[in-house]
Give the backbone structure.
Amino acid sequence: MKLSILFFTLIISLRAYAGEDEHIRQLEGKKLKCEGILATFSGKPESLELLIKEGGEGLKIAGEKDYEYRYAFHQAIATGYYYKQDFKSAKEQFEQAYAVAVKGGMADKSLKPLGNLISINYYMGLTKEADEAAEKLKNAIEPISDPKLKADAYYNLGLYNQQQKFYYGIALDYFLKSVETYKPIADTTKIVKLKVDYGLRLMMVAEIYLYLKQPEKALQYLNLAKPTLGLSLISDINAYGKFIKCYELLKNKTEALAYYKLLHEAAAKTSGNWSQLISSNLAMASLALGDKQYSLAKMYLDKADAQAKKDNKEIMTFSVNLVYGDYYKSLKDYKNALKYYKMSEHGSALYNKEQYLELLKSLTTVEMLAGSPSDAAAYHEKYVSLSDSLTDSKVSLNLAEMEARFQNEEKQLRIDNQNTELSYARSQRLWLGAGLLLISLVAILLTINYRNKKRTADLLDKKNEELTRVNSELEEANQTKAKLFGIISHDLRSPINQVYQFLQLQQRNPQLLNDAQKGELSNKIQSATGSLLATMEELLLWSKSQMSQFKTDIQPVDLKDATEQAVQLIELNLEAKRITVNNEISTAVWVKADPNYLQTIIRNLLQNAVKSSPDGGVIDIRCVQAATGIVLAIGNTGSEFTSDQYAQVLAGTNHGLSGLGLKLVDELSRKTGIAVSFENPERDSTRVSLTFAS
């Protein structure tokens, strides 16, 4: 009886083991099928559907605690949905893959779905969730030793900093780290997808250099990616589009055309609507326009237009309309040029501020050439306002990127310090272990240990103090340089642009002016250019002396001379709006101020007065002796500007004004002890007063 029970139990156990083995064999088979599809990944629709199907069947047979297999199947399904551009389904699967990796204690495997979730959340407009995924990935990357996982994490952090934070310097660092880490894998593997992934990383480095307008560097990395071409249609189309952009920037029509043909041959093998089909035709049209091959440019433009209308996305149609405007402008068909430029205005303002800035410049020129000076002036005002705003944004972005880079370096320094301290602590533990065998030496060893720790702590404290001081000086110097560049660009942009517009008018439409007008205009341009050159030289010499930090140089300054120089610099602006300046300062009036700061303050206030004054307006400049000191007053007719509005501009709450010029006036006046106030003595008039201390 006992033997029968024992035999029966043995049979049941063998069947259980056999069943478990069969279960593992089924899971392993599905996993190998998914890995096989990914290893020969081509991006074709049928391979994506097969990947989703095999992953789904694997999940059906996987148990709750089959963590490794469940992770692999969720990743496979998510990858299929991702390349099908079904981002909602892909997000769900990547989130489940991450949850399984965490629950199963697979920290290294959690990196991949985190990297995927950064991109997915960004595409879906979920900025907060993308930031959270990026922070988790950044914190988890350092302890990982697997080179492929590390390279993938670097790549995803590069995409995050490029696409979402616009920190191109930091993004480039991450992409280069990814390429360096991935190269040994690509050189030794026979798996197609790994080689394709390496090529994509090289292409992302090239994309950063294209954004930075460095096509030679971009070509260097695209050429390194050439051995991976022909392995994936998606990768090939991506690479050909970047090659075309490089050669467009290099004005190399022959090479651009060769890659144009390769791109369209590759795209014809798929059913997707590739944005590269539009951008490549626009690039070829721009090259043809540069060579004045107008019929060829029109052919490429029509192709781009047909593809953009098929896609029906404004982000592409506005680019097509913009190049159409350039085409008709080259033909001097200003009516059609204005039509297409205006059609592209909404899209460029929405998707590409720098391209919108160039569009406003083109609209200003075309309106002037078409004989609409008032419309040209309106677009020019928009151009100046947006240019100031972009300057502020770029300075802020550069400072933010420098701060982010500094924080990363500071974090790495803390990690290095911690590793040093840990290494030091390990060696101390060994010495203490040996000291346990030698009781007589315990006291001596403890004394040595204490002294070494104190010496190390003192050294670290000293290094940290030096690092804090250097970082403080660097931050102050960077802020000073940013302010100097803001002053120079803001003070010189308007007069330079006005000279440029008048020169264009004189060159392109000489028939509009008689000999007397030409002579008068030439004299004014020569006078204004000379004044502009002298001012530019003074600003550059001053900026050179101020590169480390702003230092005031208080000395006697003649207000009569200072105001006359400022008026002379904006003479063409005054002429364009027929504004009269009444400078009632007839004799020398001496005040104590920094001459360069004072020139900058007066120039900015006069430029604002010109902007606010109507055509044919009047600007008054006078100087009076008040109880509080000498007062320089600048008044103008036109829209009122109050002290409350001035305070709003300085606080950054008045979104109708860029405010850069007034912020400079406020900062420089406070540094030199000049009081600034705005009054409105009459309706539709403004008077700004500068009070100099006695």
